[in-house]
Amino acid sequence: MICMNKLIENKTKEKILKTATKLFAQKGYDGTGVREIARNSNVNVALISYYWGGKKELFQAIINDIIETQTKYAKSALDFAINPEDLSKTEQIELMYRTLDKAIDYFYGDMSNELLTFLMHGQKEKEMFVSLPLFRYGMKIFAALFDKKNVDKEVILTLASIITLINSPRLMPNFSLMMMNQRTFHNEDIKIIKKNVHLYMKALLIEHGLF
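Below the sequence we write its predicted structure tokens.
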């Protein structure tokens, strides 16, 4: 009986989190209310207070879930304990490409459209974006690679350009998917995206005398 109740509770929480993610993605944090989340989840609003305390804590729970999922996914190919500064330039470049490929696989595999839009809305929440493991580790790699500080403008703008390059086909589905007469991205599409990102990175490495 206890196990059954726990299962029901987990499913209810999952439903609320999924609904909240969708509404936050559509309307942003300020435009979304707790009662609206409860109504669209078909639950009593008191449950949100019971499980999380309020809207701020619910929003953070979504972020925590993204961080946990992304960390588990990335750790299948990356070791975040490795400090890029301790590596040779050749090793840093290899790690950079491996991290970028893993990020592309994540964005085009495990991340739903709602979560992607949620992240885009969440850009104004600085703490949220820099807490994402792939983003944070990417900053470390580029800082080490270019012998800069994490907060250096070149590091930040380079990473922002790469994120845009990776995400733009998904953020412009009416163009990319419509033009290809597809409903989703296939493995060959992801290979092309990786190739484009690698070409961009190769140009940067040449510019910095690292290739």
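The two ends are 62 Å apart (CA to CA).
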